[in-house]
From TrEMBL:
<feature type="repeat" description="ANK">
    <location>
        <begin position="434"/>
        <end position="466"/>
    </location>
</feature>
<keyword id="KW-0040">ANK repeat</keyword>
<feature type="repeat" description="ANK">
    <location>
        <begin position="334"/>
        <end position="366"/>
    </location>
</feature>
<feature type="repeat" description="ANK">
    <location>
        <begin position="467"/>
        <end position="499"/>
    </location>
</feature>
<dbReference type="InterPro" id="IPR036770">
    <property type="entry name" value="Ankyrin_rpt-contain_sf"/>
</dbReference>
<feature type="region of interest" description="Disordered">
    <location>
        <begin position="134"/>
        <end position="202"/>
    </location>
</feature>
<dbReference type="InterPro" id="IPR002110">
    <property type="entry name" value="Ankyrin_rpt"/>
</dbReference>
<keyword id="KW-0808">Transferase</keyword>
<keyword id="KW-0677">Repeat</keyword>
<keyword id="KW-0418">Kinase</keyword>
<dbReference type="GO" id="GO:0016301">
    <property type="term" value="F:kinase activity"/>
</dbReference>
<protein>
    <submittedName>
        <fullName>Kinase D-interacting substrate of 220 kDa</fullName>
    </submittedName>
</protein>
<dbReference type="Pfam" id="PF12796">
    <property type="entry name" value="Ank_2"/>
</dbReference>
<feature type="repeat" description="ANK">
    <location>
        <begin position="401"/>
        <end position="433"/>
    </location>
</feature>
<dbReference type="Pfam" id="PF00023">
    <property type="entry name" value="Ank"/>
</dbReference>
Length: 527
């Protein structure tokens, strides 16, 4: 129990070697130790031949996250076996609310620092497809002793200059310096040394003035006459931006040009006046309408769709260069349209807005995946329905993998997506790059409900992939004993062989799937 108590609250991160997807990141966050075994837990353990002695077994709640498979925060129950001779423990993970997700068997090492495992047919002598390591708690930084406080004479408060885009504090625009008006003013600095944003020698600002140093400092004549003393009072901060006179946005109080512009420069050349938009110079004014600004607006548009920010989408439609089906060639959202980005994250409201704006429903990304494919892969049923109502192409085939919407639906946990696609006349026998149909993928993943849905739609039961394997052989290779039983019961040929002449029993034996072999033996005896 001490080991399990230490496990409570621990986080493990690692990867799942998912067929057809490569390595998918996963994480487990364990909760508190529970007493008693749920009926569903007892049933699954009984099918695996594990003990149900409640004095030896403990249950732990956990959260499982596999983003690539659409599992963000799935609540699971973990039943933990007693420790073995080497101190390790076998653990069974299952979701009580979604039994269609299947089972996971993990082995916790004696130090409770790593997990390894696989599906329901995995045993410790097999190569694990799940690997995870325990995350170490971040070390708390050691407190740094503070130096002893030193008494110093009182200083006058510094005048605060607001940031260029910050809103002015009430009353700031009505005062220049907080110093006592009777105090003598500091002499103007006569050198040419830079002192921050918009501040050079001879500007008239006091040495105690707080300035920003995040922008380059102008020099020479462009600095507005550096080195020349100012006869008038120093300029003060103004709500329309640093370097703007209170009296006029174009000239300072002494009648010379605003700081940062040559005195002979025409006012019409200033970007804020030339555009008729005096005030803070935002990014759009600074960048103008060039290619850089067009790409930035388009990237913001795609990012807003991915985040589901409908209000931002509506505003960005009016920005220069934004196209509803546009994309950018670089960055996080390269080669994605707004509709593809929104569908991939299940943003139903954003998808609806984009479809109302006549977005191309069959636009694809660099891998040839459409918004419908992304929605189905992420198990986003609501978004998939919107796209199908907009006449999304159910025959679309991804360029690199050969996946179709129906193949992706058959590989996922929600069989109703298969039913929706079949109702929209999705072809059943389109194959991917390996010759596998949707029925092959459903059998390989052990999705019994999807298998029954496809068979009810008259999918071919003996269709062979590029290796000559039927859906039954694919299920046997993957170790899906329940699916093997289901396919045999639906009339699948138990004597079928692949291109190498191996049948289901030989393949199951080669891959060490003992439960599949037992199921096939039981089927042979029944016949």
């Amino acid at each position: 129990m001490a080991q399990l108590a230490d496990l409570a609250g621990a986080v493990f991160e690692g990867h799942l070697q998912a067929p057809g997807l490569g390595k998918c990141g996963l994480s487990y966050r364990f909760g508190s130790v529970q007493t008693g075994l749920h009926t569903a837990v007892k049933s699954q353990r009984r099918q695996l031949g594990w003990t149900n002695n409640e004095e030896e077994i403990r249950c732990i709640s956990a959260i499982c996250c596999i983003p690539d498979l659409g599992l963000e925060s799935e609540e699971v129950t973990v039943s933990v076996n007693p420790a073995g001779e080497d101190g390790s423990r076998l653990m069974l993970l299952q979701s009580l609310s979604r039994p269609d997700l299947g089972l996971t068997i993990l082995r916790l090492n004696s130090g409770a620092s790593s997990l390894a495992g696989g599906d329901e047919s995995w045993t410790p002598d097999m190569v694990p497809i799940v690997r995870a390591e325990r995350c170490k708690a971040p070390e708390k930084p050691k407190p740094v002793p503070r130096p002893p406080l030193q008494t110093s004479p009182a200083r006058r408060p510094r005048a605060r200059i607001p940031e260029p885009d910050a809103e002015p504090t009430p009353g700031d625009s009505d005062r220049s310096h907080p110093e006592d008006p009777t105090a003598p003013s500091a002499p103007a600095v006569q050198d040419d040394q830079p002192r921050g944003f918009g501040v050079v020698g001879g500007s008239g600002l006091l040495d105690t003035e707080a300035v920003s140093i995040c922008m380059p400092v102008p020099f020479g004549e462009e600095a507005g006459g550096a080195g020349r003393p100012l006869e008038a009072a120093p300029r003060r901060a103004h709500e329309n931006g640093i370097g703007r006179s209170v009296a006029d946005a174009g000239t300072n109080s002494s009648g010379s040009s605003a700081f940062g512009y040559h005195s002979s420069e025409p006012a019409a050349l200033r970007p804020d006046i030339a555009t008729g938009r005096p005030g803070p110079l935002d990014q759009e004014v600074l960048l103008g309408s060039g290619e850089l600004q067009v790409a930035a607006n388009q990237e913001r548009f795609v990012a807003a769709a991915r985040a589901g920010e409908v209000g931002d989408l509506q505003q960005l439609f009016s920005r220069s260069g934004v196209r509803v089906d546009g994309s950018v060639s670089e960055g996080r959202f390269a080669d994605q349209t707004a509709l593809v980005a929104a569908a991939s994250r299940g943003r139903a409201d954003a998808v609806r807005v984009l479809l109302d704006r006549k977005a191309a429903v069959d636009a694809s990304d660099a891998n040839g995946w459409t918004g419908l494919m992304h929605a189905i892969h992420g198990q986003r049923a609501e978004v998939a329905r919107y796209l199908l109502q907009a006449r999304a192409d159910v025959r679309q085939v991804a360029d690199k993998s050969g996946s179709t919407p129906l193949i992706l639906a058959a590989s996922g946990a929600r069989h109703e997506l298969c039913k929706i696609l079949i109702e929209h006349r999705s072809p059943l026998e389109i194959s991917d790059m390996e010759g596998s149909t949707a029925l092959h993928h459903a059998a390989r993943r052990g999705n019994g409900a999807a298998v029954m849905t496809l068979l009810a739609a008259r999918a071919k039961l003996e269709k062979q992939d590029s290796q000559g394997r039927t859906p039954l052989l694919a299920a046997a290779v993957a170790g899906r004993a329940n699916t093997v039983e289901l396919l045999v019961g639906q009339g699948a040929n138990a004597q079928a062989v692949d291109c190498t002449g191996k049948g289901a029993k030989e393949l199951a034996t080669a891959y060490q799937h003992a439960r599949v072999v037992q199921q096939l033996n039981a089927t042979a005896l029944a016949c």
